[in-house]
Design brief:
Helix content is 17%, strand content 41%. It contains 2 helices and 13 strands; from the N terminus they run ββββββαββββββαβ. Keywords: Mitochondrion, Ribonucleoprotein, Ribosomal protein.
Length: 163
C-alpha cells in the first residue's frame, strides 16, 4: 500500500473528517476536500493511499499559508483611480461612471494606501481568485499602462501612432 508522510511544523494542527482536511495555524484556517485517509502520529501525518500530485501541492500550499500567510499587492495606475474600504466591502473607482463594490471574503484581510493595496490570507487559491477578479475590472492598457497591476508588474506599452 502506498503512503505519503508529512511532518507538521510547530503550531500547526491538522484534522480530517468525512473527506475534508482542516489545517489550522497562527495565520488562519484552510479547509479542502481530499479522498485520502489521514492518520496522525505526533507531528507526522500519514496519508493512505498516496496523495496525487494535485492534493499534495494543495496540502503543502495550505501548510505554508497557515504558517506564513500569503500576500498579493495590487497597484492602481491611472488618473482618478482610487480604492476604499467600508464595512467589509471594497469600493473601487476605476474611471467608470459608477463605483465597483466587491464584498471582501472573511478569510482575506485588506490594507489600503492611496493607490496601493495588499490582500492577505492563508488560503492561496481564494486570494488569487479575488485578486484576479479585482484586476479583471480594469486590465492594464496596452498604450498607457493604466489599470490594476500586480506589484512589480511591467507592462510593455505599444508605440503610438506615427506621423
Amino acid at each position: 500500500m502506498n503512503t505519503r508522510m508529512y511532518r507538521l511544523p510547530v503550531g500547526v494542527d491538522c484534522l480530517s473528517n468525512q473527506g475534508k482536511v482542516r489545517i489550522s495555524g497562527p495565520c488562519g484556517v484552510v479547509v479542502f476536500d481530499s479522498s485520502s485517509k489521514l492518520y496522525r502520529k505526533g507531528n507526522i501525518l500519514i496519508f493512505l493511499p498516496k496523495l496525487t500530485k494535485y492534493y499534495s501541492s494543495i496540502f503543502t500550499q495550505a501548510v505554508l499559508g497557515v504558517v506564513l500567510g500569503y500576500t498579493i499587492e495590487l497597484n492602481l495606475k491611472g488618473i482618478g483611480y482610487r480604492v476604499s474600504k467600508e464595512k467589509g466591502e471594497l469600493i473601487l473607482y476605476l474611471g467608470y461612471s459608477h463605483s465597483i463594490i466587491l464584498e471582501i471574503p472573511k478569510e482575506i484581510t485588506v490594507t489600503l494606501d492611496k493607490k496601493i493595496f495588499s490582500l492577505m490570507s492563508a488560503n492561496y487559491g481564494l486570494l488569487q481568485n479575488f485578486a484576479t477578479k479585482i484586476r479583471s475590472y480594469r486590465l492594464p492598457d496596452s498604450y498607457k499602462g493604466a489599470g490594476v497591476l500586480y506589484n512589480n508588474e511591467i507592462v510593455n506599452c505599444k508605440q503610438g501612432k506615427k506621423n
